[in-house]
Design goal:
Elements: E1 13-17, H1 20-31, E2 35-40, H2 53-67, E3 71-76, H3 90-98, E4 102-105, E5 118-121, E6 125-129, H4 136-140, E7 144-148, H5 151-167, E8 169-170
Parallel strand pairs: 2-3, 3-4
Antiparallel strand pairs: 1-7, 2-5, 4-8, 5-6, 6-7
Helix pairs in contact: 1-2
């Protein structure tokens, strides 16, 4: 498996801690060759000048993967609170959609939100984690994740992702 990061073994599963989660996620995005399926509860991007360096690096890598021909799909959960009607994921969704990346927001009538946080690379490798893509999730909090090269596990997550994708509402670019 030439596309996997060199810092991890090629079989089984490994437990990862912060800040490795962002680094390994970035490596998986940058080395994907044909498909990336990304489900995230929160991607806390702000306008370019203010956004977290780690969140920005992940978003930029997603755009680069899409431009080099990788089939990239990003599923986000709507994230609004009673106190603030602004959706925390709107900025990232719009930035990615403006660049041509396929983005959908969760809209399953039987489930309130998509709380999953995982990335599947080329249907052969999966990274699941507790971390949101935010300053806290990728740097300030204690977070844990696991990466596996089990094709069965990756396919199981891909099936879950495809089911969620069917319920998603496409995000249109605004630029």
């Amino acid at each position: 498996m030439a596309n996997q990061p060199l810092l991890l073994p090629a079989d089984g599963a490994d437990v990862l801690w912060h800040p490795e989660l962002a680094d390994v996620g970035l490596a998986l995005i940058e080395t994907a060759s044909h498909r990336l399926s990304i489900a995230q509860f929160i991607v806390a991007a702000t306008l370019d000048s203010d956004r977290s360096a780690r969140v920005g690096a992940l978003l930029d890598a997603i755009v680069r993967a899409d431009r080099r021909g990788v089939d990239v799909r990003v599923m986000l959960s709507p994230f609004r609170s009673d106190e603030d009607p602004f959706d925390l994921n709107d900025v990232a969704a719009a930035q990615l959609a403006d660049e041509g990346v396929a983005v959908r927001t969760w809209s399953n009538p039987w489930r309130q939100s998509l709380h999953s946080k995982y990335l599947i690379q080329d249907e052969t490798c999966a990274l699941a984690m507790s971390a949101n893509w935010s300053n806290g999730g990728l740097g300030g909090n204690v977070e844990v994740g696991a990466i596996t090269w089990s094709i069965d596990t990756a396919r199981l997550l891909e099936t879950d992702f495809n089911d969620a994708w069917e319920f998603g509402e496409p995000v249109q670019g605004v630029g």
